[in-house]
Amino acid sequence: MGSRWTTAAGSSTQPLHVEVNYLTTAAIVKSIPDNDIIIYSDGSKLENGQTGGGFVSFQAGSQFLRGSIPLRPNKEVFDAEAEAALAGLEAAMAHSTAQHAPNLWICLDNLEVTIQLLSSSIGFSQTVFKSFNILADTWLSRRRLLQIEGRAV
Length: 153
Hints:
This is RNase H type-1 domain-containing protein. One of its GO terms (molecular function) is nucleic acid binding. By secondary structure, this protein is an alpha/beta fold. It contains 4 helices and 8 strands. Helix 2 (77-94) packs across helix 3 (111-117) and helix 2 packs parallel to helix 4 (126-137). The radius of gyration is 15 Å and the shape is globular. Residues 1-13 and 146-153 have low confidence and may be disordered.
């Protein structure tokens, strides 16, 4: 399942990348082609126990999507971060610019969530991780516009 996508340590020729933010240095971000999509996601928990997450998506240096996900009280930040990554992936794949993007990068700041997104999960948020895996596996089969000699085909 994880053979079609990779982390920062893996091959940059893979179409879907899930990374931990501290590994996503400015040099890596600058090396990402303009037509690739970059999604940054994060989660947090307030003192009152309410958790939530959010994402922001960029392509060609411009923000084109953002969203927030409020979760039930007493959920963990882990859950919020997983939900935010899934919501960002869903939104980016549904957006019209996805047909122009050969690659998609998801940047997180939680190593454990990243590991779970890249594997078959049997722990907390199992439904979220399964949904992420299924959706990520469809990245290659989505409708795409290819540029050949300046024309979309």
